[in-house]
Specification:
The protein is of the alpha+beta class. The chain is built from ten helices and 14 strands. The chain starts with 12 loop residues before the first strand and ends in a 9-residue tail after the last strand. Bound molecules: zinc ion (ZN). This is Hsp33 family molecular chaperone HslO.
Length: 328
């Protein structure tokens, strides 16, 4: 990471930072146009749109702490009203997401009790890093539990013991769409090492991190001093108001300064996020070609195959006669 003197945009951005002398690194993520554009493609009920916005913000903040070339995916499988929630973020900053749910079952849940467990009925949350055919694939899994996805992810880090991490998140449904603001703090290992793995990195499957965003990092404080510094950083982060986290009145750097200036906060070069799907006619055609003749015949309606991308709602139409599976 390079120290940055550039003022970041108000939103749809990932801002890395470090609290000087504390052995604490962080990421601040804001979504606004990106979340609004993705949600607007679907007629999701409010609690589902809320969960998906939370999922996208968390995927963006977690992806920003990993060193990868490819796709980072957060996927929840529920046993109740909400069956699937997916958000993925490419190393280039392209974000997408979708939800599958039972409309009547979601409508039957009173707004006041529409938390993670009521909406999903439990299930699991998977973290995946896909770096293409020739690279390792990492996957970690944690049970869905707690009031919210952020609780669930916090629990994942507590039990994995890979990384000490803390989160603060806010979601807002405003007249122009959906906004999210999220901060993730991670504690760097002390110099000379202790129980945390070197580099302070993490991988979704708990394997040794080969490298991570920001390179090698360690804290030059230790023991009780480091413990106090970590606790102080978490308390300062927790003091962020929802309005400040979400913007747009408070700039990203203004918020980081407001929270951490007494200890000294340094910001690094961040990157923009955009709403962008990776589907294409070519990819859909390849998937169809991988199906058997019978399956294709079953899918065909009046001689046509119609495939709708669950992420972006784009519709792809093919004549059944144009899609020929490979001959055995
Ligand atoms: Zn798509």
């Amino acid at each position: 990471m390079e120290p940055s003197s550039i003022t970041p945009p108000i939103s749809d951005f990932v801002q890395p930072f470090q609290i000087e002398g504390h052995g604490v690194r962080g990421r601040l993520v804001r979504l606004d146009g990106v979340a609004s554009e993705i949600i607007a493609k679907h007629a999701y009920p409010e609690p589902v749109a809320h969960l998906l916005t939370e999922m996208m913000a968390l995927a963006a903040v977690l992806a920003a702490t990993l060193k990868y070339e490819g796709v980072f995916t957060l996927q929840a499988k529920g046993n109740g009203a909400v069956r699937v929630l997916v958000a993925d973020v490419t190393s280039g900053g392209a974000v997408r997401g979708y939800a599958q749910f039972d409309k009547d079952a979601v409508a039957a849940i009173p707004a006041a009790s529409a938390n993670l467990m009521r909406l999903t009925g439990g299930g699991y949350l998977a973290f995946t890093v896909d770096q293409g055919e020739h690279a390792e694939r990492y996957q970690g899994i944690v049970e869905l539990e707690g009031q919210s996805l952020v609780d669930c992810i916090h629990h994942y880090f507590q039990q994995s013991e890979q990384l000490q991490a803390a989160f603060k998140l806010a979601i807002e449904n405003h007249p122009g769409g959906w906004r999210a603001g999220a901060i993730m703090l991670q504690r760097l290992p002390s110099q000379g090492g202790h129980h945390r793995p070197e580099g302070g990195g993490w991988t979704p499957d708990g394997s040794k991190p080969h490298d991570w965003q920001g390179g090698e990092g360690s804290s030059d404080i230790d023991g009780e001093e480091a413990e106090d510094a970590w606790r102080r950083a978490v308390v300062l982060m927790a003091s962020a108001q929802d309005k400040e986290l979400l913007g747009p009145e408070t700039g990203i750097n203004d918020l980081l300064y407001r929270l951490f200036h007494e200890d000294g906060v340094r910001v690094f070069t961040g990157h923009a996020l955009k709403a962008q799907c990776r589907c294409s006619r070519h990819r859909v055609e390849n998937v169809l070609r991988s199906l058997g003749k019978e399956e294709l015949d079953d899918l065909a309606v009046d001689g046509a195959l119609i495939v709708t991308c669950e992420f972006c709602n784009s519709e792809y139409r093919f004549a059944r006669s144009d899609v020929k599976p490979p001959v055995d």
